[in-house]
Amino acid sequence: MKSSVQAGIAVLLLSVVSMLITAIPASAQTYTLTTLSTFNAINGGVPCAGLLLSDSTLYGADTYGTVFSVPVGGGAITTLATVGGSPSGSLILSNGMLYGTTSDGGAYGYGTVFSVPVGGGAVSTLATFDGSNGAHPECSLVLSGGTLYGTTYAGGDMSLNNGQGYGTVFALRVGGGAVTTLATFNAKNGAYPNDLILSGGTLYGTTQWGGGINGTGDGTVFSVPINGNGGSGAVTTLATLDGSNGMNAEGRLVLSDGTLYGATYQGGDSSLNGGWGYGTVFSVPASGGIVTTLATFDDSNGNGPTNGLILSGSTLYGTTAYGGKCNDGTVFSLPAGGGHVTTLATFNYANGEHPFGGIILSGGNLYGTTAGGGAYSYGTVFALTPNPGSTYGLWSNSGTASLWKIPVTGSPTTASFGPFSGWTPTALNSDTSGNAYILWTTTSGAASIWEVSSSLKVTTSQSFGPYAGWVAKTFAVGPDGHVHLLWNHTSDIEASIFNIALGSSSTSQSYGPYNGWQATQIVVDSGNNTKVLWTDTTAYEASLWNITSSGTQTSESFGPYTGWEAQSLAVGSDNMARMLWENTSTKQASLFTVSANGAITTKPIGPYSGWSPSGLAVNNDGDSDLMWNSTSNQLSIFDIPSTGAFTSKAYGPYSGWKAIGIAPGP
After folding, report:
1. pLDDT tens-place string over residues 471-530
2. Any bridge partners for residue 504, and if so which?
3. How far apart are CA 193 and CA 185, in angstroms?
4. Is the pTM of this model over 0.85?
5. For 27-52, how does the pLDDT look when each residue is reduced to its tens digit (9 = 90+)?
6. Per DSSP, what are the bridge partners of residue 332?
7. Is the dihedral of CA 286, 288, 294, 296 positive or negative?
8. Structural domain count of the chain
9. Would you state the torsion angle of the CA atoms of residues 511, 517, 520, 525, taken in this order, to the nearest 10 degrees?
10. No. of H helices and E strands in the chain?
11. Domain containing 590: what range?
């Protein structure tokens, strides 16, 4: 565990130059689901498409043929126009005009492209599909340089698919006119295309089926140049889905740093849903290549992701049409690198059902529609607003624990537990659902883990040991809800990590001993990888281990930094480790942020006379929370944002009580 970081970093540690941590909203971020508007058939109904946000107004279209607007804060639905046909894709806005498609209607019944003034008014039909130039445009348009681009679900080569065709990619001047066919699908290169995205003169998309041998595959990822020649040769197949990595792709792709991200309505785990699976999230290089499965749905976390994804920072967001607690659909997030699916909201008919249209993100809020449910059963417009977040704090006093839930503003709510003779509250943590966990230990080597709900009620507990010679040091809770409990052996400084499904099974893995080193902290990132902090306090060194869910182990060393000790460890949804270092003499703190490639930024804080840095957490708003203890048992929590100055709150002192730890709250 010798240092791989040059000693010059010690200068950074002591530097007065403040380099603030770049924070991304953490995986513990919770949301409030609000119904902004409800459809009642008179003002429209069954919106299956997504929304457009412009100037504090949401715009959309529904299956009843209504183009509508809603104030972003909620309110009455305004009907802007009624079109002849069923709008099926999200609207786009340019120069005061809204543009969209209908999947049917028009002179041939195969659908249209239309425009409507943003303030409402007459509907202009810009193009009509006749089958040979496409049929049933069911997806959203893309606008670039005065040209609209889109797909049709069917049409094109009408000699195929029993006279229905397999779909097209088309172009149309924004003022209307003839439809230009850029590409035609023939099953071998895909069938039934979805929404497009445009980057650098190339259109990217997915097809619901086709590809593979003889066109019998489970869908494709494709590209088409915007100057396509109109034949099937214009389509380049970048990847073919095979069921195990997904089938029946839905919605638009996301392109970031040369990687395309998408979702499939079915596929993944073939042991579920009668062999069809419940869908996946995947990635593939934009130049083509192997499909990587980032997440698989299991019905409890969603069923049938629809209308594609959005990407913010390093987090993907999307919706599922079904699944969740009431089988009415969910809003979810997951790390762009893959990992655990976090359910942000669950629909229950009363607040809507089946969010087919997906979501948009603006100002940290998520907006979307549901195709059914609500007060009149015709669907809703909804918003998910991130909660400001709170911080859990744990106090200890002679076998009694006091758990605090500290809001951003206002007074804490508290609950006390005990006293329990021989037991001491030792550590605190929380999970992505906002539950708190308390570790209790005894001097004989026993340990007990308590799960406490956000209402501060004990819901589950489980005890372990005693194990002679072993002491439960600390723990972390993974995104899968498993508790990872770190034990130290008192004689040879060996470490053991228990992976515990509370109330069920547990496994363990031992490490060491390593002469002079002790495992002191543990966290689990959003990809279910375990990070362990080892310290050699005599040499002022630290080593950070990353243990993947498959058991692969890597490490990075830090120091020596004379006079400094690595004390605490935390991680956010960006999966970057935050390390708290303390100067044992001056009690100054330094906050390290360690990127995936090992780069370090630091922020020195303090010293403050009579105070010592004692704990670290990454809160659900993405801020780093730094805990300080005073010699008089006072607690202070610093809230350190990504930009600007930090704020602090102090509590106590309370006679006989000592602050033990902090953790992200709900």
Report:
1. 999 999 988 889 999 999 988 889 999 999 998 889 999 999 999 999 999 999 877 889
2. none
3. 8
4. no
5. 357 789 999 999 999 999 999 999 99
6. 318, 343
7. positive
8. 1
9. -60
10. 1, 52
11. 9-23+388-664
